[in-house]
Amino acid sequence: ESAFARVPRAPEVPVYAVMAACSRDPSPVKLNLGMGVYRTEDGKPLLLNVVKKAEELLFSDPSANKEYLPITGLAEFRELSAKLIFGTDSPAIKENRVTTVQCLSGTGSLRIGADFLAKYYYQSTVYLPEPTYGNHPNFFIVAGLCLRTYRYYDPVTRGLDFQGFLEDLASAPPGAIVLLHACAHNPTGVDPTVEQWEEIRQIIRSKGLLPFFDCAYQGFVSGSLEDDARAVRKFVADGGECLVVQSYSKNMGLYGERVGALSVVCKTADVATRIESQLKLLIRPMYSNPPIHGAAIAAAILKDRNLFSEWTLELETMTKRLTCMREQLFDALHERGTPGDWTHILKHVGLFTFSGLKEEQIAFMTREFHIYMSSDGRINMAGLSTNTVPHLANAIHAAVT
Ligand code: PMP
Known about the structure:
globular, 13 strands, two-stranded parallel sheet, seven-stranded mixed beta sheet, binds 4'-deoxy-4'-aminopyridoxal-5'-phosphate, alpha/beta
């Protein structure tokens, strides 16, 4: 008998299970709206042109090599990433109150951040929005922190439950960690307004709660990297502390390269350097040091004025296509006279629409129309194209009538 005979079979991770089911389906009309990745109008993955150019530069650089990076990653990448999220003129950066370490994309950054908090922060309660990205609870559970949720999405309005959000922050224990999606909330596509962010900030600061931002979609809401960093920058501008995770998976399309960063914004430069020294000790036994290639691509784009502006244009093209898909899907449902109010498709931002479709309706759409999406009703708008919108609209129409 195997020494591992008692290993129980674990359930599949839902979003990967949906992907696998879709790839098994031989139907030519099948539609994959599950996994949160950008797709072109032809349904293909997008390798950004600016990424290709950056790679060419790297390949022709005679000094390039594959030696280990420092534990904290590529220095240039760290510095430029901090500037991208906090702003080039950020006083916190100038005062050396920020430590930024390169980690394995958003996921690795969240994991290091959670482990750091579990070890060095006095409060073990973490508040997550309800609902949130499926992997979020895991980071904090493995770190041994206590999970709670705050009200976020209101299924009636298909918008923000702002009152509930504020009430839950108000009743949180002092110092509690509050995970916030910096923009383009996953899975709901619902973000607070500028005014709402301001009220959220005030209550978080007045109660001494610790904001932990996850920024996986900078640029995907407005097409502007600056605008999408606004919420984070407001929190940094007040002089308070926070953690910020960045991912280049979506906005540079570097998914598999695993490019991201964790920043801790501190009150003093001295605290920032001490935190950095501890982050190194957390990283060292996990993976020693992060991979070079993706970070070098990102740094090449971030530091070159021309590549940077080309990147922002490509980002705009992606976000425009998403907006276009929202309009087309809304119009298609409108034309069919599909019962219900579908304006939330237009109101939601970022990659996703939280459709409000129920689990059994989605099962029906998969069975009858070969449409694959998460069972919570989240639709990846980038999985759609002008050609496939009618098919999805037909499926939704049939599912709700
Ligand atoms: N946070 C959020 C909100 C996400 O949606 C994702 C990816 N779907 C991640 C973090 C992690 O992505 P990655 O590890 O590829 O950066």
